[in-house]
Amino acid sequence: MTSKYYPPTYEEDGFHCPYCQVYSKQKWLKIYFLEATYYYLEDLKMSVCSHCRKFAYWYKGEMIVPDESTAPLPHEDLPENIKEDYLEARSIVNKSPRGSAAILRLCLQKLMKELGETGKNINTDIGLLVKKGLPEEVQQALDILRVIGNESVHPGELDMRDDIDTAIQLFELINFIVEDRITRKKKIFSLFSRLPENKRQEIERRDE
Fold it and tell me: Mean pLDDT, to the nearest integer, of 102-110?
């Protein structure tokens, strides 16, 4: 499966299907209307997923059926107390990118607590994580979410009102942070715990 999320995009050859969520090739078909003769409906098109074979319908470049969010699903390791907010943000992103970004800022605030910080001041929390050795790319992902989320609540230089593309990328950043800060740690801990107990004890004595 493709690790990067590719949202459904008009006339693209491939993207993550809104039905099966699999990255797959898309076949584009014109739609005709029959009344004595065939008329081509210029504003309407449909795409066919090569994986599940289901049809999506598009009007003037916008997907209208299914009426489904184009944002990626939450990472499987996203904490449950954050997942509900993430899904709420996902449900409105097509209609209100600004509202979606504002909710993702709340997700980020809750995520700070999961990463061992207070969650009271996101900027301060990120600074503390940096002092603890936070990788630069994760710091930048956190700050992007923080700044754009703040601008969505208190509009300034950034206008998220109609910027769906940027809003979609914010969901990807949340999932990236979860993968780096939570999932990788879980995987390493799981592998380490499989080592023979005497070997783990030797390592513990070495590091004391």
Answer: 94
